[in-house]
Amino acid sequence: MPRLQWNRATSATLLALVGALSLTACSGDDDTTPDSGVKVDAGTTVDAGSDAGPTDAGSDAGSVDTGIAWDGGSAGTFSCEGKTQTTLNFAPGQEEAFQDQVNTLAECTTINLAAGTYTFDNAITIRQKGITLVGAGKGAKGEGTGGASSTVLVFTNAAANSNGLDVVGDRFTVSDLAVWNAKKDAIRVESSADVVMRRVRTEWAEANKESNGKYGLYPVKSKYVVIEDCEAYNAADAGIYVGQTEYAVVRNSVAKQNVAGIEIENTKYAYVLGNTAQDNTTGLVVFDLPGNPIKGTDIRVKDNIITGNNRNNFASVQASSSTVSQVPAGTGTFLLASRRVELTGNTWGDNNTVDVAVLSGLTIEKDPAQWVAGGLNFASADISVHDNTFQGGSGDNVDNGNTSQSLRPLGAALAALYAYGETQGTLSVEHLLWDGLDPFGHDRAQLNPINICFANNMLPASTTTAIVDLDLQAAATLAGQGNLPGAWAKTRHYAADKAEFNCSGFSPALTIGDFIQ
User: Fold this and answer.
1) What sign has the CA pseudo-torsion 364, 368, 372, 378?
2) Is the peptide bond before 368 cis (omega within 30 degrees of 0)?
3) What pLDDT is recorded for position 75?
4) CA 397/CA 158 separation, integer angstroms
C-alpha cells in the first residue's frame, strides 16, 4: 500500500488537529419519537459492579457476580404460554391485507410470509406482544426480489424517513426474510424484551450512498436480544447495531460494506461471537456516548473475523449525527468509553489505519459534566486483548490517504504523526493504539493506569512494537507549537511482552457463556 510522505509544515498543521478533536458525540438513536413507555423488569440480579472513581485504576468489578444466567429463552415478563395463539398466512400481492392485519394484531400471533417479493409504501408497524414474523428465507446478497425459497420486503418507494419493520413489543421474533432499501432503519425494535432476529438480511441496493438508511438491524432500549445468522450490507451508519440495551448476543452474522459493521453502544452484558466484519469503514466497535442512561460494561468479543475494513467513510460529516461518521477508513475495532471488555480469539488484518484503538470518551466530549447522565461513563478501563491473531498489513495507509482536516481529524492526526514516524524507522501504526488519556489522574510515569492487557496474541514475524501510547494531550500541545518531532517523541512504543501491558486481564473475569445452544 502507498505510504504517506512527510512534510514538516503540513504535518504539523494536521497534527495540531489532535488538540481539537471533536467527533460528533451523538447517540446513534437520533429518532425524536417519544419513548414507547414499555417498562421491562426481568427480575435479574446481576450487577455491573462499582465503577472506578477518580483515584481508581479502573478495575471496577467490585465483588459482584458478573455472570449471565440467561439461556436464550424467555427472560422478560411476557409469555404466550396458556394464551390464545393465532397464525396468519400471506402471499405476494396481499400486501394491503397484510398491513391491515398488522394494524389490528392480537397478541401471540404468528405471521407466515410465503416466498416472493412484497412491496410496501410505508413501514410495517407492530405494537403488540408475542408476535412472530417468518418468511421462506433471507436469500443471497444482492437479491432485491424474492425467489422460490426467499422472502424479500421491498421499501424502495416507501414514504420518506420511514423504517422497514418498526416494532415495539415484548417477545418479538423475525426470521427468514430480507428487508430491501428501507428509507431509514431496516428493522428497528425499541423498548422490548425477548427479541430474536435470526436468518435475516438487510440491504440497500447501492453501495457507498450516504442517503441509504442508517441502520440494518437496530434493537435499542431493550433487554434480552439475540441476533443470529444474519447479514447486513450498505448501511450508512451501522449494519448491525445494539444500543442502550442489557443482555445481548450477536452471533454468526455477517456485516459488509457498511460504515460500521457491528456496533455495540451503551450496552451492558453483550456477547459478540463468531461474526465476520469485512469491507466496512470500521469493522466492530464498542463504545458509550454521553447522555445515555445505560453505562456499558461487560462485553465479550470472541472468535470474530475483522479484516480489510478499508471502505471510504460514506456517512456525511455535516449531515450525520453519528460518531462513526468521523471514523477514519481502515479502523478494525475501536473501544471508546468502554469498561470490562474482553477481546479474544479474534482475527484482525489489512485494516489500513489500525487494528484496535482504545479511546477515552473525553476524545469526543471534553466536558465531564456532559457524561453525568451515564454515570460519568467517559472512562475506558479494564480492556483485555488476549489470544487473538493479528495477520499484518494494517496501519500503513491511514484513512486510505485522506488526510484533509475537513474529513476525519483523528485520521489526519495519525497520518501526520506516522508520516514523521516513518523518518524515524516506525513504518506503521501498531496493532493496539491507546490515546493515553487517563481519566483517573495518574502520573504519566505509570505506563498502564487503565489496565489494558495485551497477552498471548499471535503477531506477524516482522512485528517489533505492538502497542502505542499516543499521549494525545502532550502531542497536541507540542504540535500546536509546530514541534512535530517533539510530539512524536511523546508517543511511546512497546513490544507485545512489555510487562505493564502483559497482564492477566481484570477480576472477576467475565463469565458470559454461550447463551444459546
Assistant:
1) positive
2) no
3) 60
4) 40
E-only strand ranges, 279-353: 282-287, 297-302, 305-307, 331-336, 339-344, 347-349
Strand order in the sheet with 432-434: 124-126, 165-167, 187-190, 215-220, 238-243, 260-265, 282-287, 331-336, 354-359, 432-434, 467-469, 492-494
Residues of the chain with pLDDT under 50: 1-27, 29, 31-73, 514-517
Q: Are strands 276-278 and 86-90 parallel, antiparallel or unpaired?
A: unpaired
Q: Which candidate, 160, 205, 158, places its Cα nearest to that of 180?
A: 205
What's the pTM value of the predicted model, to 2 decimals?
Answer: 0.88
Closest CA to 475 of 462, 463, 485: 485
Contact 85/414 with Cβ under 8 angstroms?
no
Cell of 257: 460494506
In contact, 284 and 275? CB cutoff 8 Å: yes
Report the amino acid identity of residue 118: Y
Residue 331 and residue 41: Cα distance in Å, rounded?
Answer: 37
Q: How far apart are the C-alpha atoms of 323 and 309, rounded to whole Å?
A: 17
In this prediction, residue 424 carries a pLDDT of 85
d(CA 67, CA 340): 13
pLDDT attached to residue 93: 98
CA 226 from centre of chain:
15
Instruction: Please tell me the predicted confidence (pLDDT) of residue 383.
Output: 98
Q: Looking at residue 439, what is its pLDDT?
A: 79
CB 457 within 8 A of CB 349: no
157 CB neighbour count, 10 Å cutoff: 10
Residue given cell 471488555 in the structure block: 341
